[in-house]
Design brief:
Elements: E1 10-14, H1 17-31, E2 39-43, H2 46-51, H3 55-67, E3 69-72, H4 80-85, H5 95-103, E4 106-111, E5 128-133, E6 142-146, E7 150-157, E8 163-171, E9 175-179, H6 184-201, E10 204-209, H7 217-240, E11 244-248, H8 249-258, E12 263-267, H9 269-283, E13 289-294, E14 300-304, H10 310-317, H11 327-343, H12 347-365, E15 368-369, H13 371-374, E16 384-385, H14 388-400
Parallel strand pairs: 1-2, 1-3, 3-14, 5-12, 10-11, 10-12, 15-16
Antiparallel strand pairs: 4-5, 4-13, 6-9, 7-8, 13-14
The structure holds NADP nicotinamide-adenine-dinucleotide phosphate and magnesium ion.
Residues 74-77, 96, 286-287, 303, 306-311, 324-325, 372 line the site of NADP nicotinamide-adenine-dinucleotide phosphate.
Length: 403
């Protein structure tokens, strides 16, 4: 076959450990034979981050602003042990955090469903996509533990020096306190990303906070969303026959569990952290989740939702066979190639992304899967565990039949 041409490059962010090994096999087996791949390559592997003093991460994020589409491999976020292991001069920050801060986006996570693995929640038939606001709140909070008696106050000093004060609590014993914030600009970006993603994927959008209790903080989220919806998206939603629905977080939890799925659930930062783990676990595994960061400017960064699978990597280094699931990483590639195709009006590239995903699903439906999934398969279905390379080759066989 003649390889599919690309007109604009993708930003390619390579990563670490087992996912770095899979990254190369996926490209060699599933992309290069079919696509005349154009990428601008950034090595976000920990060694290169150390060599460049993390400049490479910043460069890759700015390249994403230029080209609009990136695909990212999982990367190590260094902790103390990694600093020793890799002989680092600094505990470099999480690349995902750095990239998010530059692109200012919302992370959308959706499960990949197959017939033989049923969600733990029996009535879930369609994917539930979690949209997590990835800025502020408890993740940027200032905390204090107090042991002396005294008064805690919230003080805001404006640039002219005027103070606004409110008593938080008069402590008659020891205790804890915390100051959280968020910014209108970030909440507005979050709202735009969610409404755009709902339109892109033609799904209903749910949004939940606790505005009955948090009458200023969460209320601000609710009102900004409402305002942006009415001004910019209502007409398009009505035209597509999709709905925007706001409800309290506790009501949302009850409705989600009773639903059939098939919508986007937008959550504040902490709710999104917790709920995405709940939803992904109930649907199967992190290796069967797609994840994309969508920025309000319309930049897209596709990645796997899991980490670098360190335990498997050490087995691999010892020459042992590994059965690491490459699905989420393959879908990061197909997602990025499809979006590149969409932005460049490259129908062949979009079709390739569909064919690649279809070949993955056909392979799984044939009962060929990695070890992590075999244990989840329902009674009545046959499943055989293969290693990562065998799994990817089985996908390639099916993909070749489509060309
Ligand atoms: P992890 O890499 O997600 O792996 C945790 C465990 O989950 C694995 O040991 C494995 O379980 C299972 N697992 C995850 N992905 C799998 C896959 N594709 N196929 C099969 N099993 C899979 O999390 P971690 O071990 O906590 O973190 C490892 C490194 O990844 C850390 O350095 C962390 O900083 C980094 N990390 C990066 C990202 C990112 O770049 N997005 C996200 C999270 C963590 P078994 O061992 O039981 O087989
Ligand atoms: Mg979490």
């Amino acid at each position: 076959m003649e390889k599919i041409k690309m007109t604009t490059p993708l930003v390619e962010m390579d990563g670490d450990e087992m996912t770095r090994i899979l990254w190369k096999i996926i490209k060699d087996e599933l992309i290069y034979p079919f696509v005349d791949l154009k990428t601008e390559y950034y090595d976000l592997g920990l060694q290169k981050r150390e060599e460049t003093k993390d400049q490479i991460t910043l460069d890759s994020a700015y390249a994403t602003k230029k080209y609009k589409v990136a695909v990212k491999c999982a990367t190590i976020t260094p902790n103390k042990q990694r600093v020793e292991e890799y002989n680092l001069t600094e505990m470099w920050k999480s690349p995902n955090g750095t990239i998010r801060a530059i692109l200012d986006g919302t992370v959308f996570r959706a499960p990949i469903l197959i017939d033989s693995i049923k969600p733990v929640v029996k009535n879930w038939k369609k994917p539930i996509t979690i949209a997590r606001h990835a800025y502020g709140d408890v993740y940027k909070a200032t905390e204090m533990r107090v042991t002396d008696l005294g008064k805690a106050e919230l003080v805001f000093t404006d640039n002219a020096g005027n103070e606004t004060r409110q008593t938080i609590y008069d402590f008659e014993c020891g205790g804890v306190l915390q100051g959280q914030y968020n910014k209108d600009s970030s909440i507005i970006s979050f709202a735009h990303s969610c409404f755009k993603y709902a339109i892109d994927t033609k799904q209903d959008l749910w949004f939940s906070t606790k505005d009955t209790i948090s009458k200023k903080y969460d209320q601000t989220f609710k009102l900004l969303f409402e305002d942006i919806y009415n001004k910019d998206y209502k007409a398009k939603f009505e035209e597509l026959g999709i709905t925007y629905f706001y409800t309290l977080i506790d009501d949302a939890v009850a409705r989600v569990i009773r639903s059939q799925g098939g919508y986007i659930w937008a959550c504040k930062n902490y709710d999104g952290d917790v709920m995405s783990d709940m939803v992904s676990t109930a649907f199967g595994s992190l290796a069967m989740m797609t994840s994309v960061l969508v920025s309000p400017e319309g930049n897209y960064e596709y990645e796997a939702a899991h980490g670098t699978v360190t335990r498997h990597y050490y087995k691999y280094l010892k020459g042992e066979e590994t059965s690491t699931n490459p699905m989420a990483t393959i879908y990061a590639w197909s997602g990025a190639l499809r979006k590149r195709g969409e932005l460049d009006s490259n129908l062949e590239l979009m079709k390739f992304a569909d064919n690649l995903e279809a070949s993955c699903i056909e392979t799984l439906n044939a009962g060929i899967m990695t070890k992590d999934l075999v244990g989840l398969v329902e009674e009545g279905f046959e499943a055989k565990a293969v290693n990562s390379v065998e799994f990817i080759k089985a996908i390639r066989e099916r993909l070749e039949l489509k060309y």
